[in-house]
Amino acid sequence: MDKYVDAPRPTRLPPLVPFSSYTDADAAVDQLIKLYQRNTAFIRDAFREYGAGTLELGQRVRACYPAIRIRINTYPEVDSRLSYGHLVEPGVYLTTVTRPTLFRDYLREQVRLLLRNHNVPVEIGESDLPIPLHFAFPEGEYAQGEYSEVPGHTLRDHFDVPDLAVTDDAIVNGTWRGRPNQPRPLAPFTGPRVDYSLQRLQHYTGTSPTHFQDFVLFTNYQFYVDEFVKWARATLASGTGGYQALVQPGNHIVTRETASQEAPALPFTPQMPTYHITREGHTGITLINIGVGPSNAKTITDHVAVLRPSAWLMLGHCAGLRTTQRLGDYVLAHGYVREDHVLDDDLPLWVPVPPLAEVQVALEQAVAEVAGLSGWELKKIMRTGTVATIDNRNWELRDQQEPVQRLSQSRAIALDMESATVAANGFRFRVPYGTLLCVSDKPLHGELKLPGMASAFYRTQVNQHLHIGIRALEHLREMPGERLHSRKLRSFIETAFK
């Protein structure tokens, strides 16, 4: 008989913690933290046994995500002005939870709203969804065990590994179809989906998810990054705005005392360098250089969305399509022609992506304040209209008749490669979104983005454009959360969590 053949052993599990009722949001979240820490430690301890060669052959180890569950027995009467924090019909609702310490404030708010709006307790306990080994480690630690040549003694034979079958966007896409008697979703993302994105954020941005702020700027030019860092360091040195620190790629932290010091060089540059100027309660601003193209725009917003930011804005450059526009003019998008194609399967083209009044007003107000203009003078430098987003940077080289005709029929006033993607994913993920672009070329009118023609534009407009974006986010930060999170983002079949 093969010496490695052995009878399978029962799966090793931590003692089951049954669901218990809570009427206090802080106590409920504390229990989530306790369960998560216990279960991830259980997996890590077993992994150390595996690494030491003391884990028995055939022994499987498993621990599951903690969960929040609520039972609603009546059709609730809820204030119709509320866009989240409540359920629309009777049933059992559940969500699995990961990294509850990171999401403490978010979870506390969502649980508090459930308790207030439904006047029934929430239940905290263990789900039956396993925590994958690779997601059980704190930041900076990874499962890097080698696959053994001994049958039945590999990572996959002992531990649960990430399973794409339970890591998808069916809930936010509105395509979730549960099994009979299965609880309905309580939140837009499951524990494994959040874990997956947290890992990718660290990889793409070069910064820890713990540093991300609730108000996010996306750009595709290094000029904006340079000006943001300059502004952030000056703001920290002055001690204004309630900002506490600047976090740069590599998790390098700059404080008021070190604002004049240069950051150390990185051994490598992340794909989407990210900078955070922090405030208490994650109310600062995150700036991400997403690079060029709709694929990048989708990738980063897919992952930032799990952090449930309060708002995100796209600041980029565009081709002006009207003869009356000048280089440096602003375009405030109120509609999008979506020819980026990267979201066609997740958000069909027949779904409109509406402008959000709160964001539109904040952006227009910020342009007026930073540019020092009002009335007709403001209208001279800013157009509100439709932005077309395409996936072909060299669209100008195609036969002009077909694309120009479509652009004319859509009434588009500008064209770029990211804005519709960022806005559409904001709509899809229920994150307030907005777009303010700056005209950097007019290819249909002979003004191309060439070094000599664009240099003056970059010198004069980048700084102002960035500060408009910062000021707009500061306006949005001053709004109550329930007002900013527009009901336009919510369907009539919706999760309770924001």
How is this fold's topology laid out?
Layout: E1 20-22, H1 25-52, E2 64-72, E3 91-96, H2 104-118, E4 122-130, H3 155-158, H4 170-173, E5 184-185, H5 191-205, E6 215-219, H6 222-238, E7 243-248, E8 252-254, E9 274-279, E10 285-289, H7 294-304, E11 311-320, E12 330-339, H8 357-371, H9 375-381, E13 382-390, H10 401-410, E14 412-416, H11 419-429, E15 433-441, H12 451-477, H13 481-484
Parallel strand pairs: 3-5, 6-10, 6-11, 11-15, 12-13, 13-14
Antiparallel strand pairs: 1-4, 2-3, 2-4, 7-8, 7-9, 9-10, 11-14, 12-15
Keywords:
498 residues; 2 domains; 19% strand; amp nucleosidase, domain 1; 5-stranded mixed beta barrel; alpha/beta; Rossmann fold; disordered N terminus; globular; 5-stranded mixed beta sheet
